């Protein structure tokens, strides 16, 4: 897509709807929302073909570096509460930011003239079930802070959703964009909450809210972190280290998956799409669906000695059984031209190559 088509209008209808804006945020404490109470248009001063991006909580630092290569190293600011690898500092700005600290986030946005906010901070499915109170704070209170700030400052806001936003009563094969959801994890509940709040603020106040439901995302740069689909990352590391992987899901558990490169590209293309092309605020995106046994068989084409044993974990298996086995992403394909580049064969070849290279660089043996 050409650069000149990166953005449509920011905060569509902000001027015409300004008189309807609330005098305070929807969160439970009062905040000074000057733009909410003014007649000022939300046209950004910075040309939108050169967005200034703040990213919260992204673990795949290679994706951040790709964004910096595209938009300029000083225009993409990574933030987290954890110290990143040293190469992240050399590729562009990194700042400490806690999504629960509203005042500090506001300072970052204003001082850095941010125009796009990409909000990744969240506790994932299995980890969230082990600490519901913390998940509620990060996934819901943190989201409220981000929504308030995006509306106040008229930002283009991206909040990812997930396969976990669906539940056992949802259509499973395939799951459409619009259907009954009813998730049964705090992670899924918080993501549905985010989808609905963003859509509400878009329709009522013109917030340029955008959301993609990610399938399981597979990346060599992101270690397993408590997600239900993490086996599909760990199996590559195990295949090249011990030639044995113990899977916490049944061998026939089919779930939607995606290579990180496709996930990153989908997000950028979606953010670049003019508003007039979007019929929805939340879209499914799909690439492939496979089972643990299918990915193991594909790996064995390259590493015949891989052994996989199955020891289903009741928590993660129950979560996986409540999720769709495929996504219907026909609306994304129609509205903004989404198309994946990686199938299972391409994903396995690339992951084996990348994991092998990573282990070699770090001085670990490769089987």
From TrEMBL:
Domain NAD-dependent epimerase/dehydratase: 81-286
Protein's pathway: Amino-acid degradation; L-threonine degradation via oxydo-reductase pathway; glycine from L-threonine: step 1/2
SUPFAM superfamilies: NAD(P)-binding Rossmann-fold domains
GO BP terms, alphabetized: L-threonine catabolic process
Catalytic activity field: L-threonine + NAD(+) = (2S)-2-amino-3-oxobutanoate + NADH + H(+)
Gene3D superfamilies associated with the record: NAD(P)-binding Rossmann-like Domain
Classification via InterPro entries: Epimerase_deHydtase, NAD(P)-bd_dom_sf, NAD(P)_epim/dehydratase
GO molecular function: L-threonine 3-dehydrogenase activity
EC number: 1.1.1.103
Biological role: Catalyzes the NAD(+)-dependent oxidation of L-threonine to 2-amino-3-ketobutyrate, mediating L-threonine catabolism.
Family of the protein in this entry: Belongs to the NAD(P)-dependent epimerase/dehydratase family.
Protein name: L-threonine 3-dehydrogenase, mitochondrial
């Amino acid at each position: 897509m050409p650069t000149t088509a990166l953005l449509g209008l920011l905060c569509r209808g902000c001027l015409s709807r300004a008189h309807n804006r609330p005098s305070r945020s929807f969160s439970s404490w009062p905040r000074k929302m000057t733009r909410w109470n003014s007649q000022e248009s939300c046209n950004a001063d910075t040309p939108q073909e050169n967005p200034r991006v703040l990213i919260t909580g992204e673990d795949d630092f290679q994706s951040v570096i790709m964004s910096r290569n595209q938009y300029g190293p000083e225009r993409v600011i990574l933030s987290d509460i954890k110290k990143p690898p040293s190469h992240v500092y050399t590729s562009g700005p990194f700042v400490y930011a806690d999504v629960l600290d509203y005042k500090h986030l506001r300072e970052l946005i204003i001082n850095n003239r941010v125009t796009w906010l990409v909000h990744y901070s969240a506790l994932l499915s299995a980890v969230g079930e082990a600490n519901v109170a913390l998940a509620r704070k990060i996934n819901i209170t943190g989201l409220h802070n981000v929504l308030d700030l995006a509306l106040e400052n008229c930002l283009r806001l991206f909040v990812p959703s997930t396969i976990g936003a669906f539940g056992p009563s949802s259509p499973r094969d395939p799951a459409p964009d619009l259907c009954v959801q009813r998730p049964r994890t705090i992670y899924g509940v918080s993501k549905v909450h985010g989808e609905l709040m963003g859509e509400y603020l878009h329709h009522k106040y013109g917030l340029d809210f955008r959301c993609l439901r990610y399938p399981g995302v597979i990346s060599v740069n992101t270690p397993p972190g408590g997600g239900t689909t993490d086996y599909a990352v760990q199996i590559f590391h195990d295949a090249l280290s011990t030639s044995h992987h113990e899977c916490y899901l049944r061998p026939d558990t089919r779930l939607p998956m995606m290579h990180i490169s496709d996930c990153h590209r989908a997000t950028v293309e979606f953010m670049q799409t003019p508003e007039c092309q979007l019929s929805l605020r939340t879209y499914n995106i799909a690439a492939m669906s496979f089972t643990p046994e299918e990915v193991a068989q594909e790996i064995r084409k390259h590493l015949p000695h891989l052994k996989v044993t199955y020891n289903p974990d009741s928590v993660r298996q129950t979560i996986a059984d409540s999720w769709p086995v495929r996504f219907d992403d026909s609306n994304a394909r129609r509205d903004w031209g989404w198309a994946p580049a990686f199938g299972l064969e391409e994903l396995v070849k690339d992951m084996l190559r990348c994991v092998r290279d990573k282990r070699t660089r770090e001085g670990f043996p490769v089987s």
